[in-house]
Design brief:
The chain has about 425 residues and is of the alpha+beta class. It has three domains: about 180 residues, no CATH class; about 120 residues, no CATH class; about 90 residues, no CATH class. The chain has 17 helices and 15 strands. It is elongated. The chain starts with 17 loop residues before the first helix and ends with a helix.
């Protein structure tokens, strides 16, 4: 049996041949011209200029590993999926108060057309002045549009790299580089997003005679130029620095990172890591005793718990993470005072985990709501609403029935609700 012939592809453009690529590109150029200047605007550009525009066009983003770096294929795959997802629905206006096009379209066809209009060597063809006049709204708005587009793109690349990081194993940062393809018949200018890796520093710390590993807390630089360590000002910890702006490095014990992921069990480790960094960049600190500090851990600017830290050998060591209702927190202690809630009770009711409160709307039960508000846990009610978009899994039913039963409210709900009492009183009055 003869083998079927394999179809040959030119370059890396897959099944699209050169002619089809060109047709698709020129359709996109024509569409932008029509949105700006109306039908027929693109007809003013000669064929040879359109061909030149095609061979010098800006190409879609490619996400590739940095030279000599072994980036896991799964990480690159996740980044590419995130990139597409984060670009979805992002748009840029073509001119002030004008129609919008997709961000990815602006960076490819839009940027190519803008370069063509604004570059002086393309002004010699007969209808160039007329075309430039027709497209003036587009070309004169480019500074604002470029700023808008670049800001959105940088945010996407930053979130993409953050969401691919794992502080326990490896962090990733990216930068962007353009490269002309001079010797490729498909032409174009590549827009490459280069992925770099970074292994966070680890140290051994000893508490109570036990040695444990701790990881330096750091994250991808906002300027996309590497990895930045996250530090905390000494004055926030009550240390006397003689007026100097002293800052301490922060390390988190592996144990603490595990507790963070276990107790924020429905949002994913990458999101928990991002909000760890954000909480430490703008820390709210309270001192527990001579050695221990509680640093608020916030999700979407709402307190979800505390990072328990100590200073050791000139650095801050985060020893564990406590969810808001845990026994070592001010709120957890208040819950214990009000209703005797202990560690085993919290574990039995699963109220030491975020997922329970994301699945349970305490505001729907006024008695339970009042109890948690009295304990200072109002932020749990906020989290249910504000952090809902972060949740990727719940996996449990509402805890309202179990909580009502535990706090002795079940019978009152069944037999002594206010509306039933009113009905009973009215009936009693009639019978009298």
């Amino acid at each position: 049996m003869s083998k079927g012939k394999k179809k040959k592809h030119g370059g890396h453009q897959g099944r699209f041949d050169l002619a089809e690529l060109k047709r698709n590109f020129l359709k996109r150029i024509e569409a932008i011209c029509t949105l700006v200047a109306g039908p027929g605007a693109c007809d003013m550009i000669p064929r040879e200029e359109l061909n030149l525009m095609f061979t010098s066009r800006f190409l879609p983003v490619k996400i590739i590993p940095a030279p000599d770096e072994q980036i896991p294929p799964d990480v690159l795959k996740i980044m590419r999926i995130l990139f597409v997802h984060l670009n979805k629905d992002k748009k840029v206006p073509l001119f002030k108060d004008g129609p919008e096009i997709a961000l990815t379209e602006y960076h490819t066809a839009g940027s190519t057309l803008l370069y063509f209009i604004r570059h002086p060597e393309h002004n010699y063809y007969p209808k160039a002045p007329g075309f430039e006049k027709a497209m003036e709204k587009f070309s004169s708005y480019f500074e604002e549009a470029e700023e808008n587009a670049n800001w959105q793109s940088n945010e996407i690349l930053r979130v993409m790299s953050l969401m691919s990081c794992d502080l326990a194993s490896c962090l990733y940062w990216v930068n962007e580089k353009y490269r002309p393809r001079y010797h490729d018949r498909f032409g174009g200018i590549e827009d490459n997003v280069i992925v770099h890796s970074h292994k966070p520093e680890r140290i051994n710390v000893t508490f109570d005679g036990l040695s444990r590993q701790a990881i330096k807390v750091c994250w991808p630089s906002p300027s996309m130029e590497g990895i930045d360590a996250i530090r905390i000002k000494s004055e926030l910890l009550g240390l006397n620095c003689d007026g100097q702006d002293s800052q301490l490095d922060i390390y988190i014990q592996v144990h603490a990172l595990q507790r963070l992921n276990e107790r924020l069990d429905c949002i994913g480790n990458a999101i928990a890591y991002v909000y760890l960094c954000l909480s430490l960049l703008e820390p709210s600190v309270q001192r527990e005793d001579g050695h221990t500090f509680l640093i608020e851990y916030r999700l979407v600017e709402v307190k979800a718990g505390y990072l328990v830290a100590e200073i050791k050998d000139g650095v801050v060591i985060i020893k564990t993470f406590l969810f808001l209702t845990n026994g070592g927190t001010p709120e957890g202690r208040k819950l214990h005072e009000i209703c005797g809630l202990g560690r085993l009770d919290r574990e039995f009711l699963s109220i030491d985990k975020l997922s329970t409160f994301m699945a349970t709307d305490l505001k729907s039960d006024k008695e339970l709501e009042r109890l948690f508000l009295e304990a200072g846990c109002d932020c749990l009610l906020e989290l249910h609403d504000k952090a809902a978009y972060l949740v990727h899994k719940i996996g449990i039913e509402s805890a309202l029935p179990a909580l009502r039963k535990y706090f002795g409210l079940e019978s009152k709900r069944d037999f002594m609700t206010p509306d039933l009492l009113d009905k009973f009183r009215r009936r009693f009055e009639v019978e009298q």
